[in-house]
Amino acid sequence: MSEIKEESTSSFPILKGETEMSSYYGYTCIGGRQEDQDCLAYDDVNGRQVFTVCDGMGGHAGGCVASTIAAKTLTESLRQQAEAVSTKEAIITAVGEANSAVYKKSQDEPSLRGMGTTLTLLVIDNQAAYVTHIGDSRVYQLRKGRKVFRTFDHSMVFDQVSKGYLTEEEARKHPRSNVLSKAIGILPDVDIKVTKLDYRKGDRFILCCDGVWNTQSEAEVINMFTANEDLETTIMSTRFLVEKIGKENGGRHDNHTMIAVDMKGNSKYKISILRKLGNMLSYFFNRIQILFRHEKANHREK
Asked: What's the pLDDT tens digit per position in 217-233?
């Protein structure tokens, strides 16, 4: 079963389903814009569940074209690849083909030159969860109300975060927070990194564009994603709150799109204790570096 969803006037939600591995809900909303340039997609093939969110950009109709082409090409490529191909290999091939398809379309039609899209992908099988992203749409993995994983944005301001010049909250509020450092369809090729994750029964994955996560602080966003155990309630309350915040801030808010996935069992893949410890030490070391650089930058300003 393959589903590609754009803005819909149909009853809410526009994406809903359940399998032996998970339950999922999703929506896309035009927000305060004249056109919805977001797209979300779902497919279930060769024992893999595929979820993707794309946030298009570029001129009249360009963003919508880019996000739709990327989502369709991605899901079709994963469907066509043999079951024997590893999930990681299949993802790298599919994302590369999506990038090429958007780039070719933009080169073939002058009116679409410069169009592109973010791409966030979650693929789940009984072995593990696999995540990749291009741009600033995100994947969160939440466990018992806490964040255990989140993608790191490919954007100008998050490049500054990684160097310790901005905090994530400062980056979120920055006037150039929407300037991407990487996107699908802008260049003939794109670097692709796939992260393999374990998952447990009750874990919740969230895929969302910046129209969702950029409305509040990280702590508030995580609370919004985890306040309700029921998926439908989570989706409906998130959509309502994002619309409310947007209207309170002038009503010209961005399109917003989200998929929530609740896991029903444990993955066969387990991250070793040593690897977890290494990841924790690396995280804290990076945080110390960032805080030191940020404090040093503040001192220079004074």
From this structure: 999 999 999 999 999 99
